[in-house]
Amino acid sequence: MASHRRPKQPSRARVTVLTATAAAAVALTSQAAQAAPKPSKDEVKSKVDKLYEEAEKATDKYNGAKEKQDKLEKQVDRLQDKVARGQEDLNELRGGLGSLASAQYRSGGVDPSVQLFLSSDPDDYLDKASTLDQLSSQQVEALKKIQEKQRTLAQERKEAADKLKDLADTRKELGNKKAEVQKKLGAAQKLLNTLTAKEKQALAAKEQRASRDAGDRVDLGKEVPASQRGQAALAAAATQIGKPYVSGGSGPNSYDCSGLTQWAYNQAGVQITRTTYTQQNDGTKIGRGELKPGDLVFFNNLAHVGFYAGNGQVLHAPHPGASVRYESMSYLGTFQFGVRI
User: What is the pLDDT of residues 133-184, one digit of tens each?
Assistant: First the structure.
């Protein structure tokens, strides 16, 4: 028979030690929390700017995936339409052979050559020279057309299937990049929420001053434009001053940085690509000393792009919470290079 023993109770001394240890741990945790200094407004702003930069990079990847998805969708539609038309042509060719078989049956039966036409595997029959001997040149030509159509159709179906797989992969990538952008922006907002009402007001006032200055007191100098189209693109971008920055925005109601540059150049009759990491290859790279109004300017490891507007000023879509405006190059981080379209 199994024995049942009462569990051994902890000694009073042991309970006292454990209680003291737990209290000490709570006290240390409390002290550590108190010891961690609250980040200053400038530290928060610096961290938020870094998160915005990372979000812009993720947005660029998102825009690239979106552009690829749109192209793939059009390609898939064209291929599927082509396959459907090819199947109709094949059915029509086979229908013609069916009519020939019916006529031969009514006149005394279907001979081996027509049986060949109606086979689901004409290639197998064509390999048999004895059967070919029974066919007229016109019949051989008809059969070859069916064979060719079958091969083409199989190839087109495979191509359509491959494109559909690419499309599914791209849609998955699109979802991942969108989630990454939202995560970065959420982290930035969480940091901003740690500021006091007074600190938030100070940052908002700074943004407001930047946007107001963009429209009121910007000295662009009298530099010669990069080109007639560059001048036209810059002028188009200037009409969008005050429009909000939105990740993935490409106009006309909102923009991200590369969305603004693409839209503006489109207004000037020039097609450029959608993302910063592709726009860098849309023209000739130039140094800072060579910049002219209408050139694209890139910053922070291709995280940001805008228009050089003259006199050291950039016209751009800055970041979430801001609007399209002029801003001094000295405030935009690390300059990489310019690109003349």
Answer: 555 565 667 777 777 877 887 888 888 888 888 878 888 887 887 788 788 8
The residue from 116, 135, 257, 305 that is catalytic is: 257
Tokens, residue 312:
């050291």
Local structure of residue 289 (DSSP, 8 states): G
Identify whether 4 is a catalytic site residue: no
Tell me which of 66, 68, 316, 325 is the catalytic residue. 316
For this structure, is 304 an active site residue?
Answer: yes
What stretches of the chain show up as alpha helix (H) in DSSP? 12-35, 41-106, 112-117, 122-126, 129-132, 137-192, 197-216, 228-238, 257-267, 276-279
* Res. 129 pLDDT band, cuts 50 70 90: very low
Q: Report the candidate in 77, 87, 76 with the shortest Cα–Cα distance to residue 149.
A: 87
CB of 181 closer than 8 Å to CB of 62:
yes
Q: Is position 306 annotated as part of the catalytic site?
A: no
Q: Is the pLDDT of residue 15 over 50?
A: no
Question: Of 62, 56, 59, which is closest to residue 319 (Cα–Cα)?
Answer: 56
Q: Residues 237, 307: contact at Cβ < 8 Å? A: yes
Sign of CA dihedral 151, 154, 159, 162: negative
